[in-house]
Amino acid sequence: MGRLLFHVLAVLEEATNSDSPIDRALAAHFSNIKGRLTPRDHTRIRDMVWGVVRRYRRLLWWLEVNGQTPQVRKLLLADLVLTHGKNVQDITHFCKGGGGYLKRLTDSEARALSAMDGKRLADETMPEAVTLECPAWAEKGLREVFGDRFAEEVDALREPAPLDIRVNPFKGNRDDLIPRLEKAGCKVEKLDWLPYGLRITDAGRKAHLPFYERGEFEIQDAGSQVLATMVAVEPGQRVIDFCAGAGGKTLALAAEMDNRGQLIAADVHNKRLARAAQRLKRAGVFNAERKVLESERDPWVKKNKGKFDRVLVDAPCSGTGSWRRAPDSKWRRDETDLEELVTLQESILTSAARLVKPGGRLVYATCSLLPVENEDQIARFLRSRPDFKLVPVKDVWDTKMPSPMPETMGDMLRLSPATNDTDGFFAAILERSMD
What we know:
The chain has helices at residues 2-18, 22-32, 39-54, 56-65, 72-82, 88-94, 107-116, 128-131, 136-146, 150-156, 174-183, 209-213, 222-230, 248-256, 270-283, 299-303, 335-352, 375-384, 393-400, 417-420; strands at 163-167, 188-190, 197-200, 217-219, 238-241, 262-267, 288-292, 308-314, 356-366, 388-391, 413-415, 425-432. It has 435 residues and is of the alpha/beta class. It folds into three domains: 2-126, no CATH class; 163-219, Sun protein, domain 3 (Alpha-Beta Plaits, 2-Layer Sandwich), CATH 3.30.70.1170; 222-432, Vaccinia Virus protein VP39 (Rossmann fold, 3-Layer(aba) Sandwich). Strands 5, 6, 7, 8, 9, 10, 11 and 12 form an eight-stranded mixed sheet that branches. Strands 2-3-1-4 form a four-stranded antiparallel sheet, sandwiched between helices. Strand 2 and strand 3 (197-200) form a beta hairpin. Residues 153-433 form the SAM-dependent MTase RsmB/NOP-type domain.
C-alpha cells in the first residue's frame, strides 16, 4: 500500500494546487505514469482519492480537534486510521520516505494519529453539517429549502449517482434497446416516468459503450431529461439553448423537435461547443447550429431580440444538486464564489429574456438546490419584467410527461435525490405576454 499512497497523495495535491476537478487530476496522473501501474492499482488509487474527498469535512474536523493544520497529506493519513483501520505502526511502515513512498511521519503527526486510533469517522460530538459533509457556504440555503428534511436530503447527496441514459429516438426506440443492452451484459431498468429514460444498474458499465458510440443513447441524468421536456418545444419552432455547454440538453431538445425548426446551441466556451458538434453529428441531429458568444450580452443577442419561441437558460451555478457526481466541487467553492454566481445568473437571465418573442417562453434552470440561485432569481426577474408571468410546471408536466407530477412539486420544478431519485434540479417556466 505504501507505494500506492504516494500516488494518492500526488493526485490530491495536484487537484488542490491547481483547483482542478479530481477526475482531471486522476487522468493527468495516470497519463504521466503510463505503464508503471496495473489496472487494479489504478482502481485502488481512484477509490482512495475519492474516499478522502467524500469524507473531507469529517477528516478535517478530526485534524482540527487534534490541533493539526488542514493539509492534504494529513487528511490522507487520518483517513487511513479512521476509515481503513490502520494504526501508527502500520502508517510508519508505509511512510518510508523517498523511493516512491510518503515522507516519514513527524512526531506531531504520530501523536495526532495515535489520538484517533480506535475512533469512528463520524463522532457523536460532530456538528450535523460536518457529519453530512455539507460545506458551510451551502448549509444555510439547504436548511432554508429543506427544513426538517435537511439531513435526509443532504445525506442523499453523498451517495454515488446512478447511470441514467436517454434513448435517442432518431436511432431506435427504448423497448428495442433494452433487450439488446441486456444481451450485451447490462442490467437495465426502465424509467417509466420519462419518455426515453433508462437506468443501467450493473457494475460492469462498459458493456454499454458500443451503443453510446453509435449514438443510440446519450448519458443524461433523469432530472436533466425532465428539465429538457419542461421546455415544451414543438417541431418547427425557433429554439435556443443559451448556456448549451457540451450540448446534452440541446440533443434532447432536437429529439423533441423531430429535427424540424431551428435550434441554436449557444455558449461562451468554444471548446465545449466543439464537443457538442461531435455529439450532435453522432446522434443524427441536423436542425441544430452552434453559436459562440463573447459574453451573455453579446451584440448578437440584441440583433435577435424577440425571435425565439423557446429560450432555455441552464445557468452556471454552484452545482449543489450534482454533488453525487462531483463531490469535490463542494470544497472548491465558498461564499464569494456563490455571490459572483448569483450576479452572473441575473445578468444571463436578463439578457436571454430579450430573445423571447411575444407569447414565447423562457425556461430558467440550474442544477443547484439553493433558493438564492433559484426562487430568489425568479422573484427578482418577475419584478423587473412584468411582461413575463410564471407558468405552473404542472401545466407542462400534464401534457408532456407519461406519468402524473409528484405531489411534492410546486409551481416551479424542484427535483432532488432523496425525493425524486435524480440529481438536484430547479426550473421555472416563464411566458412572455403578447402585448
